[in-house]
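Sharing a chain and its predicted structure for anyone who wants a worked example. Both blocks are below, sequence first, tokens second.
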Amino acid sequence: MKILVVGNGGREHTIVWKLAQSPKVEEIYTAPGNAGTAMLGMNVDIAADEIESLLEFAQAEEIDLTVVGPEIPLMQGIVDRFEAEGLKIFGPVRQAAMLEGSKVCAKQLMTKYGIPTAPFVVCDTREEARAATHGKAFPYVIKVDGLAAGKGALIIKDQQDLETAFREIWDEKKFGTAAEQVLVEDFLQGEELSLFAVTDGERYVLLPAAQDHKRVFDNDEGPNTGGMGAYAPAPLGTAAVIAHAEEKVIRPLLEAMREEECPYKGVLYCGLMIDKGEPSVVEINARFGDPEAQVTIPLIRSDFADLLYSVAAGKLDVDGFKLSDQYAACVIVASGGYPEAYAKGKIINGLDTEEDSVKDTVFLAGVQYDGAHFCTSGGRVLGVTRLAGDLDSAITVAYAKVKTISFDGAHYRRDIGKKGLARLQE
């Protein structure tokens, strides 16, 4: 099998790493890829949003399966375009991907089909947002409708937060066209859980429930990021919680998409708030999470290429799907200053050989290799993932490896998995 993976982050390195373990995979191409994917296959100099060029490449190379990592090409209709040409591709069509592309669309669908989520008001203008927030009790959330790289949800704790949000959205235009509509949502109490369903539109399998760490600093302080670390399976995701999530969210969502004559194929990422064992949907995404992919995908025991191909073919093999009984922890090492301005081109110490990087499941993201050194090229530079028989051990060995990697300005959180460990002690 010849496979094309679209994207260039830590998630895509993880996908390529797992695909490379399949005896059925002969060649892997990644477009555009990074220094990590280059170790396991061939990088192709085509950007993730250059759909026609990706299609031409897939046709010329007779690619058997294309796997889409990031959300932007999904919103642009890459799946629709490839399927129109008879090519197998893993991911939802554009209309289905709008569950992530438009928070308004997602909320309206959930309301229509009775899927639990926070009460909300849609605002088309600054004036409507002023009216919706006037006198509203703190805290609450303001979300921009469109894609914002995981940074479009603003928690409003006081009047100062509100004024900052209005300035960023309407004066500074920080979110651009993504903020043409905004939602004012009630604040959901509880603890967040990420749940991933891999589905062919009818059948589905669940990956281990994960928890992400969005804030840049310890104790969930500082601005939102794309994610500073994750662990799985999260102790919050008990059998009862997962059963409730399937009953009230996963199955109703998939049924709703079929009712809307737009079956959802790919991975359905449900960001849930769990309160007293009951789930409410915070957000829906149309792809593997990052960094959740770095802890959920390594826990899949069955053939990953078979899994993704069966979804693309509409014939998911539920019975053949197997998971590890281990735990996984991932610590993201970021550039100093991230998620704001940061320097690039810093030499990374501790990734001395290609063999070590692959063996140690250090998933590279914002990293380039200049022939002599690995150098930083992005905000989130790499993620160190480790597996072990218990969560504490997985976290411990992940941090042990993190301490062997360094570059000027390197930053990482030191409390990844702390909530999970505390829950295990309850």
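Comments welcome. The longest strand covers residues 266-275.
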